[in-house]
């Protein structure tokens, strides 16, 4: 008779149900696993056999067949150890078959029967809740999975604990969610001396989730500004926190099962590969742009990134998701991030300083920023020049508002956008608006439209650039608590589009 256990296989952020069928039949002694397993799944038979032996459970001298259904779905990872062990124990009538059939299990087994934590417990709990089953996982993964309130999560320390739980000898209490983490950053905007225009641009970018490019000489404070951006962003909403945590769960980044309400801040080095930035590899893992979902992706030394890597950012910036196509799978990850890029004006970095610039100025500046293609440059809503800071300015007292004050204005603007887009799928901020909703929220009066038409003709704006200016204008109006876009709002938005490769 065949015993049934259940687990999941991961496809992107989704956990697809997998049925583990175990049959113990007469024949030559063997232990085989079928159903398109990878090397880690095939090795599960040795870990399961040794773990059962440590509990003084001997396998019968029969043919043991484990089928992972659906058989055409690739099975990867060590989390199949526990469901295979459960199916085998149920087939041997050590634990009740009906109890095992009502449970989704995942976990890696040590040779002594201890359960080792695995990635993906949070997406697995979502699937278990949809299937109306409990989730059995290692104790260290229980705090993470317990965030899904609709699922009864059981965190066990060893295979012996699992057997005692199912036989009623020692029932395991349901797991409790981990701690909620906030933004504990001590970096404040007032630490940056001067750069008031760049600070203002950062406030606008944070309020509307706009992409921003900073161009300036080395040491002007570009990285310092970018690293203070998380301090002015509003915390993640519960839905956003769950979306982000599911991706981080697959990447193994959740600390002790805690879900953070602080927005992600990812800053990959410019030598990172395309697979590291976009995602991919043998098992199509999420990349930095997906790990920055609902947060900030900071790319320092932007022109130094490989050209092919930069060009792959164009689609995720527009659509908010990335498709990783492989021979055996097509995986889709969400990637609705805010791109903050920093670049020097030229290779030597001192194009604007006649005394320190190289002999190739200003041609070197055009060549250097020319590494950023026109279509990619067009996707930046805000382009800001960050001038060098004089030594005398460093001795001045802090200027401008602190991060808490700016964060309050950003939060107020975000609340206006949330109310505006309530009930509109796929739109949360002004940067998401397109089509008819954009025309409605960014309607211009006669005087403002005349200015927009002149600017579009003077600067040769593309349709994308035209719409991005409207979105930035709407965000500036939100920060000003204005119901309509006025001429000063549009003029300020236009001023952030003037930095091109030649002008920089």
Beta-strand proportion: 15-25%
Radius of gyration of CA atoms, rounded to a whole number: 27 Å
Q: Give the structural class.
A: alpha/beta
Q: Tell me how many strands there are.
A: 20
**Low-confidence stretches at least 5 residues in length (pLDDT < 50)?**
500-504
Mean pLDDT: 90
> Helical proportion?
25-40%
Provide a quick synopsis of the model.
By secondary structure, this protein is of the alpha/beta class.
Task: Give an account of the 3D structure.
The structure is a single chain. This protein has 504 residues and is of the alpha/beta class. The chain contains 22 helices and 20 strands. A 5-stranded parallel β-sheet has the order 13-16-19-11-20. Helix 5 crosses helix 6 (139-145), helix 8 packs parallel to helix 18 (403-420) and helix 21 (463-479) packs across helix 22.
Provide key terms for this protein.
five-stranded parallel β-sheet; alpha/beta; 504 residues; four-stranded mixed β-sheet
Architecture blueprint of SSEs:
Elements: E1 3-11, E2 14-25, E3 30-34, H1 39-42, H2 44-54, E4 63-69, H3 81-91, H4 97-101, E5 103-105, E6 108-109, E7 115-116, H5 121-130, E8 134-138, H6 139-145, E9 153-156, H7 159-166, E10 180-181, H8 196-208, E11 212-216, H9 222-226, H10 238-250, E12 259-260, E13 265-266, H11 274-278, E14 279-280, E15 285-286, H12 288-291, E16 296-299, H13 307-311, H14 314-319, E17 321-325, E18 330-334, E19 338-343, H15 363-369, H16 374-377, E20 382-386, H17 391-394, H18 403-420, H19 436-441, H20 446-459, H21 463-479, H22 487-495
Parallel strand pairs: 3-4, 5-8, 8-9, 10-12, 11-19, 11-20, 13-16, 16-19
Antiparallel strand pairs: 1-2, 2-4, 6-7, 14-15, 17-18
């Amino acid at each position: 008779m065949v015993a049934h256990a259940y687990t999941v296989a991961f496809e992107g952020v989704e956990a697809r149900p997998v049925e583990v069928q175990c049959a113990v039949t007469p024949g030559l002694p063997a232990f085989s696993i079928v159903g398109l397993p990878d090397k880690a799944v095939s090795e599960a038979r040795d870990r399961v056999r040794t773990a059962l032996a440590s509990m003084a459970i001997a396998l019968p001298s029969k043919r043991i067949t484990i089928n992972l259904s659906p058989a055409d779905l690739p099975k990867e990872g060590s989390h199949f150890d526990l469901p295979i062990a459960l199916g085998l124990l149920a087939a041997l009538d050590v634990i009740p078959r009906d109890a095992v059939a009502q449970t989704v299990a995942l976990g890696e087994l040590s040779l002594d029967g201890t359960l080792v934590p695995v990635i993906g417990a949070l997406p697995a709990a979502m699937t278990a809740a949809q299937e109306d089953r409990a989730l059995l996982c290692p104790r260290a993964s229980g705090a993470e999975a317990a965030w899904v309130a609709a699922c009864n999560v059981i965190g066990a320390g060893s295979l012996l604990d699992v057997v005692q739980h199912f036989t009623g000898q020692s029932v395991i209490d349901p797991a409790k969610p981990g701690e909620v983490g906030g933004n504990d950053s001590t970096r404040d905007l007032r630490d940056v001396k001067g750069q008031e225009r760049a600070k203002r641009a950062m406030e606008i970018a944070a309020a509307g989730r706009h992409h921003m490019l900073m161009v300036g000489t080395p040491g002007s404070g570009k990285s310092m500004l970018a690293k203070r951006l998380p301090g002015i962003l509003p915390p993640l909403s519960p839905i956003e926190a769950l979306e982000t945590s599911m991706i981080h769960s697959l990447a193994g980044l959740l600390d002790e099962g805690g879900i953070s309400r602080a927005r992600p801040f990812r800053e990959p080095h410019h030598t990172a590969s395309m697979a590291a930035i976009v995602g991919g590899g043998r098992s199509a893992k999420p990349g930095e742009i997906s790990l920055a979902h609902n947060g900030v992706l900071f790319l320092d030394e932007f022109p130094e990134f490989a050209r092919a890597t930069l060009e792959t950012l164009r689609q995720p910036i527009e659509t908010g998701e990335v498709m990783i196509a492989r021979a055996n799978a097509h995986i889709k990850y969400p990637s609705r991030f805010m791109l903050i890029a920093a670049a020097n004006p030229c290779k030597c970095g001192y194009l604007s300083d006649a005394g320190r610039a190289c002999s190739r100025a200003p041609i070197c500046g055009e060549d250097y920023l020319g590494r950023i293609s026109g279509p990619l440059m067009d996707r930046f809503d805000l382009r800001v020049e960050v001038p060098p800071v004089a030594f005398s300015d460093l001795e001045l007292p802090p200027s401008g508002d602190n991060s808490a004050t700016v964060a309050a204005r950003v939060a107020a603007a975000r609340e206006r956008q949330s109310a505006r887009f309530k009930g509109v799928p796929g739109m949360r901020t002004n940067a998401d608006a397109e089509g008819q909703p954009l025309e409605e929220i960014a309607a211009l009066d006669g005087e403002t439209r005349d200015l927009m038409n002149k600017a579009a003709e003077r600067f040769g704006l593309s349709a994308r650039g035209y719409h991005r200016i409207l979105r930035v204008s709407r965000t500036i109006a939100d920060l000003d608590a204005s119901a309509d876009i006025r001429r000063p709002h549009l003029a300020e938005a236009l001023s952030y589009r003037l930095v091109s490769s030649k002008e920089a």
